[in-house]
Amino acid sequence: MNYDIELNSAAHYPVRDIVDLSPMIEQAGFGAFWKGESNSTDPLVLLSAIAARTSKLKLGTAIYHIYGRSAITLGIQSATLQDLSAGRLLLGLGVANKTIAAWHNGVFDRPLRRAREYIEIVRKTAAGERVEYEGEIYSTGKRFQLSWTPSQPAFPIYLAGLGPQMTKLVGKISDGVFINMATPATVKEIAGRVREGAIEAGRDPDSLEIIVKVRASLNPDREIARSKLKQVLTFYNIADHYKDMLIASGFEPEVLRIQEAFKAGGFKAASQCMTDDYMDKLPVIPGTSIKEIRDRLQPFVDAGATRLIIPYVPVTEPVIGDARRFVEAWGATS
């Protein structure tokens, strides 16, 4: 089992501090460092700096959305980081949502077709092939090809998925699935659909990664450990797509109660409806020890996860100090 870390959730970590911490992350035994985007710091810029400070740590985007840059641009960026890091890139992509698409003057439509075409262009570009792509959505024009021959032309591309159609597509066209905010039972369902898609496409279902995010905080005081995670969970209970998945997972009364509080009194009122009992049923771990965190990750392994990303949620200031203590504690038990 690969245990990875992400420093992106519920806090702004100064990027220089993350880069300084990266050798310790590698030494602690984490398999990869992941960085997501929306309106936060840029993943590939940060990962490039981390690549220069580490030698084995994999470097992942979790996730880059497809509206932020052309597929050609991402292919160039990916090939560059692959060469820079000697082949350590793990490229995670997602189709995002209407809000993020609008930030980039995009239109959120036909997500399945968009994902398929985008990935095809990225792969061809980063491999150094001539690209003259004419798809239903994307067109690259004529005579594009990298000016150099990439030394590491192949790397895995993972796709975020929740719903039935997208998760089956994952199995057909990508190297694995990203699953966020899912219980072990939901992880098992999604993994099954991904493997079905692989079989339909004539691919080996066992070759695909099932990558699961489980957020954690670490503090000897349980209530302190819960504090920021409650805010994170409140956000997901009012967010598009995720609220639907949580309802489908059997939490309709809890989700509707939080949404009603949000409409009536805003985020603070909604957060007050996030009970400890509900939190303990969701994929977050307010841990008082590393052993507890490891033990509570096991059900996700049993459900089929092949990589576990721990987006660490700090509960004390400065946040980088809190993260450093978590990394040190994890390394001491590896």
Descriptive account of the structure:
- The protein is α/β, with parallel strands linked by helices.
- The protein has twelve helices and ten strands.
- The chain has helices at residues 15-27, 43-53, 71-85, 98-103, 111-126, 164-173, 184-200, 222-238, 242-271, 276-279, 290-302, 319-333, and strands at residues 2-6, 32-35, 58-65, 89-94, 157-160, 176-180, 209-213, 215-218, 284-287, 307-311.
- It has an eight-stranded parallel β-barrel with strand order 1-2-3-4-5-6-7-10, surrounded by six helices. It has a two-stranded parallel sheet with strand order 8-9.
- Strand 6 (176-180), helix 7 and strand 7 (209-213) form a beta-alpha-beta unit.
- Helix 3 packs across helix 5 (111-126).
- The longest helix has 30 residues, at 242-271.
- The relative contact order is 0.14.
- The mean pLDDT is 96.
Rg result: 20 Å
How far do the termini sit from each other? 12 Å
Q: Looking across the biggest beta sheet, what order are the strands in?
A: 1-2-3-4-5-6-7-10
Based on secondary structure, the structural category is alpha/beta
Number of helices, counting only DSSP H or I runs of 4 residues or more: 12
Strand count? 10
Query: Mean of residue pLDDT?
Result: 96
Biggest beta-sheet profile:
8 strands, parallel, barrel
Q: Which bin fits the share of residues in helices?
A: 40-55%
Strand content: 5-15%
Low-pLDDT stretches are none
Could you spell the SSE succession in H and E letters? EHEHEHEHHEHEHEEHHHEHEH
Approximate shape = globular
